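Renewal narrative, Specific Aim 1. Our central claim is that a sequence can be written position by position from structural information alone. The example that follows is taken directly from our test logs and has not been curated for this report. It begins with the structure tokens describing the chain, in the order in which they were read.
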């Protein structure tokens, strides 16, 4: 019999449980150039994705492909170093598989970060944005197919996909630490080709402040799983449809690396105060 994703997630979970010291409370998913977000934690176990049953492999060069467990500020953390994207050819179920493993392990909060292109003309490269809401333009959804009732309900409410308390906590921490934080709406596309000037105009019109190729599948699965979500984007490049400029992966990585310590400082204090 073909295993469904709930069986697969259960097998991955069983494997991990036998190898970790304590179940994680908080999940971290880091994006492009942000794989070191877990560096400041006391790592107790580490797994290459390829060694975890059914775990999808990250094919993107800048993503490490490692799942680490450990202690950060006295909290048990499970951190994905490198994520899975639709543009790699993975299905929405595969992209959201790590969230299901988090759910099975009892994770209650997930902090998701990504690199994104800025659409809001007030944004500058290097800005960090708290994700207030998203627009799923991927044409995909991780809940398509028979509903797994043990995971969540058929039609999950999406009126507050990002947790209000966590957003306020991040904002407070930003102010305390003197780290400027923007706020905005993230548009999730499938990629991997970047946006045309006409697409940038369209995304602005529909209310998006930033654009990227990740996050929305994971957030939908997390909401379905009743895991609360904090999302943050590093604006690695900005889009001006009237003066189109090319963005390179090198640039995106350089800006993400420069901003990563500021994002890590915010994430760490959020974890501390959850
Ligand atoms: N578009 C999509 N994804 C991105 C971008 C962008 O401009 N920058 C970083 N990730």
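The sequence written for that structure reads:
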């Amino acid at each position: 019999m073909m295993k469904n994703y709930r069986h697969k997630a259960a097998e991955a979970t069983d494997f991990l449980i036998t190898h970790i010291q304590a179940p994680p409370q908080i999940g971290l998913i880091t994006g492009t150039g942000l794989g070191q977000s877990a560096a400041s934690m006391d790592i107790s176990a580490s797994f290459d994705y390829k060694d975890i049953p059914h775990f999808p492999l990250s094919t993107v060069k800048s993503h490490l492909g490692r799942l680490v467990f450990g202690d950060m500020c006295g909290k048990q953390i499970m951190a994905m170093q490198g994520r899975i994207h639709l543009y790699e050819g993975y299905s929405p179920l595969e992209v959201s598989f790590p969230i299901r493993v988090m759910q099975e392990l009892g994770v209650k909060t997930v902090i998701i970060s990504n690199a994104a292109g800025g659409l809001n003309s007030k944004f500058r490269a290097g800005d960090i944005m708290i994700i207030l809401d998203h627009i799923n333009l991927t044409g995909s959804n991780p809940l398509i197919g028979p509903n797994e009732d043990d995971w969540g309900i058929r039609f999950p409410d999406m009126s507050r996909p990002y947790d209000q308390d966590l957003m306020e906590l991040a904002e407070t921490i930003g102010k305390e630490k003197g780290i400027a934080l923007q706020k905005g709406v993230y548009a999730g596309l499938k990629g991997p080709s970047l946006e045309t000037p006409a697409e940038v105009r369209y995304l602005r019109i529909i209310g998006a402040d930033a654009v990227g190729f990740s996050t929305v599948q994971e957030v939908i699965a997390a909401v379905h799983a009743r895991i609360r979500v904090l999302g943050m984007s590093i604006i690695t490049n900005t889009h001006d449809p009237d003066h189109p400029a090319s963005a390179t992966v090198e640039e995106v990585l350089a800006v993400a690396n420069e901003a990563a310590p500021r994002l890590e400082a915010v994430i760490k204090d959020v974890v501390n105060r959850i």
